[in-house]
Amino acid sequence: MKRIICFLALATVFFSACTDDFESINTNGNQPESVGSEFLLPTIIFDFANINVNEAYNFGDIISQYAANYEFINLDLYRWSGDDRFWSPMYQVLLNIQDVKSQAIADGDQNLEAVALILESQVMSVITDAYGHVPYSEALLAESNMITPSYDNQEDIYNQLFTNLERANSLIDTDGSVKGDILFDGNMAMWQKYANTLRVRLLMHTANVNTNISSNLKAILENPAKYPLLGSTEDDVIYEYSGVVPDVSTVSAVNGGRAYDYFLSVPTTTFIDNLDDNDPRLELFLSPRQCAEGDATCAADRLQGVAPGLDQSNIGRPADYSRRSEEFYNSGTLIQSIWVTYSELNFILAEAREEGYISTGTAKGYYDAAVEASFTQWGLTMPADFLTTTAPYDNTTEVLYEQKWLALYHVGIEAWLDWKRTRKPSFIKAGPGTSNNGNVPVRLFYPADEQSLNAENYENAIKLLDGNDDLNAGAWWWSAN
Which residues neighbour 18 within 8 Å (Cβ) at sequence distance 6 or greater? Predict the structure, then answer.
């Protein structure tokens, strides 16, 4: 749903009286002491949307092997260090969510409380899924002088997220609304579908360790009146930028995104090879390499990718390869912040049916719906023979995981998270130039500041990671390399 952000100036606050005490004298009468949720909620949604889309392009594309950088390749080669990308920015968003939630509870606004719980669960899931065990229960207590929060075990975090989403579902009054909602324009039925679909995603993350996965999923799927889910691509949870600055992704040229940064990442051979000639997403996602006039060899094969994980000496020139879509870069609206989609939901249900976790529907039925929805999401028509010739369902192959990988393009970092759990598609492997002992990382290093500013709790956290703040360390729901 397209939403245009209105940046509203807060009215100047005047005080009718003052006292002689020091505190009053030093109070800035032009500085509001609190901000209403109708102003804070759009900031939360917009900030998370920007983080999500920026990291989809700059980190998710690389770690999930849709793209590879042709220089400045430490990210590609897993030469990583302390990483703050999903830490400080995300915790700042959480602080704002906490303010909205507190205000909602104080005002008895159950719909607003539900929205805050859903957004909290979305943001917190990204943090723990990127690092493992992280601060949560004490993370938002800075005003109570808690500046060195303890780290919560990932299992405990997930259990709280499930509790949040169950409560959000029960609080929502679909006849009501909320102010400041630039995602769904106050449509609480959509917030309810989003909450339950996010819960299905997070439940599937835990499939390898959750002994109750089957009953958990069945409880939702077998009671659609109580737990509605996304029902079509019209329900996709996507922040669609309006195209009018400042409501444009900073990745886009329209809002100052640098061409060098955007085109630094070139498509991989893996991405191009899996986008079959019969797949119209190929032309949407990629621009062919630019050929010199009269270069017949180049013109005959304009789709060229780079193998993931090559060292610098083996990459060659960027002109040798296809490029990310120029149309996306030059558009103010094509670059979107994709949170969760109907396509992803159906891929999850296809796998759940295949694994016997659920008994509703068929794996093939869910798979077919998922693939077609991926085309529809991008405004494309699926070729008539795609599900019979190009990529028919076959539970003896990895086609489900391959097509899900394609459908998760630019859905934050979800393709990496899905691979961490399943290790599929199996073509995602560490390239020949990588470090990290030939392993694709399964987590980020904690930010360097944690080692110095929160040392005791940091040390306790790495004990939960088998004693090492390591890229290959397992957490609760994913295993170690």
Answer: 24, 25
Cα atoms found within 13 Å of the Cα of residue 29, Cβ hemisphere only: 8
What are the pLDDT digits (tens) for 5-33? 443 333 333 333 344 454 444 555 555 55
First and final CA of the chain: distance in angstroms? 40
Residue 346 lies in a domain: yes
Return the biggest CA–CA distance within the chain.
84
Helix (H) or strand (E) holding 266: strand 265-267
286 part of a folded domain: no
58 located within any domain: yes
Say whether pTM exceeds 0.90. Answer: yes
**Neighbour tally for 353: CB within 10 Å:** 22
> What CATH number is associated with residue 387?
1.25.40.390
The total number of structural domains that make up the chain: 1
Please report the pLDDT score of residue 408 as a whole number. Answer: 98
428-448 confidence digits (pLDDT tens): 999 999 999 999 999 999 999
DSSP assignment string, 58-127: IIIHHHTTSEEESSS-TTTTT------TTTHHHHHHHHHHHHHHHHHHHHT-HHHHHHHHHHHHHHHHHH
